[in-house]
Design brief:
Elements: E1 9-13, H1 21-30, E2 35-41, E3 60-64, E4 67-70, H2 74-83, E5 93-100, H3 112-122, E6 127-132, H4 143-157, E7 165-171, E8 179-181, E9 189-197, E10 203-212, H5 221-226, E11 230-236, H6 242-249
Parallel strand pairs: 1-2, 1-5, 2-4, 5-6, 6-7, 8-11
Antiparallel strand pairs: 3-4, 7-11, 9-10
Length: 256
């Protein structure tokens, strides 16, 4: 929590890169209620998931006061922001996005946007990931997502979110009907690898295209988006399936 009389420190990152318009919209919205420190990848890192760079050094370039680009992943950016780039005081809140495209269902396991919020949660910092659906031309409107930031942040900064939980917010195209609290659905994303050949005749592969399963749960995030609602999903860092603990305890598992 921010000390009395001080504005909260808000760390902002994304996976679309430091020059992405969604990042600018998010930082602008957050600046209305806190000191914003932007630490974002130097280029697009979509699909990076929860990758942390360990086998090479990270380079940081200061673009302006409280604005840094990193040649790493969103997880790297959150790590550096929390420990190194916010002026000696950990942030009170981490915001990631606003992503150009949805992060719902099984997609969240690939998403660098969601991973940034997950990393913050693991480091004990409350977090919100925000994404906006792309239209038929591949563009996204960030106005609605940016407009929700202050409301959601106020609740989170007031301690109304359980420890170990972060929010994944998705906004549909057009004018939403309202806001739904949802579960992570099972809309799954399965990319295919296309084989091509370079001018020398050597094969290469490009992961592109996707098969998406039909929407399932009526209370899932994908269903809310399809029906024109903003989806707000509480996710948690701990992946343990509590319901399976008793079942596994009944197994007989012996050392070989």
């Amino acid at each position: 929590m921010a000390p009395p009389g001080e504005r909260p420190v808000i760390l902002v990152t994304n996976d679309d890169g430091i020059d992405a318009p969604g990042l600018a919209a998010l930082a602008g919205a957050a600046s209305a209620f806190g000191r914003v420190v932007v630490v974002a990848p130097d280029r697009e890192r979509s699909g990076a998931g929860h990758a942390l760079t360990l086998m090479r050094p990270l380079r940081v370039v200061k673009r302006a006061d409280d604005r840094f680009q990193v040649d790493g992943t969103p997880t790297d950016c959150v790590h550096l922001g929390v420990f190194n780039l916010t002026g000696g005081r950990p942030p009170d809140l981490v915001l990631t996005g606003i992503n150009r495209g949805l992060n719902v269902g099984d997609d969240v396991t690939y998403s660098g946007t969601v991973a940034g919020a997950l990393e913050a949660t693991l480091l004990g910092i409350p977090a919100i990931a925000l994404s906006s659906e792309r239209d038929a031309q591949g563009d996204a409107d960030y106005e609605v997502a940016a407009g929700l930031v202050a409301q959601l942040a106020a609740q989170v900064l007031s301690g109304h979110l359980r420890t170990g939980v972060f929010l994944n917010v998705n906004v549909p195209c057009g004018t939403p009907r309202g806001v739904r609290v949802t579960r992570q659905g099972t809309r799954s994303y399965r990319a295919g690898a296309l084989e091509r050949f370079d001018p020398s005749g050597r094969p290469y592969f490009w992961i592109a295209g996707a098969d998406v399963t039909p929407a399932g749960e009526a209370d899932g995030d994908h269903s809310a988006i399809r029906e024109g609602w903003v989806s707000v999903t509480p996710l948690q860092a701990n992946l343990t399936d509590a319901a399976a603990l008793a079942e596994l305890s009944s197994w007989t598992i012996e050392l070989p």
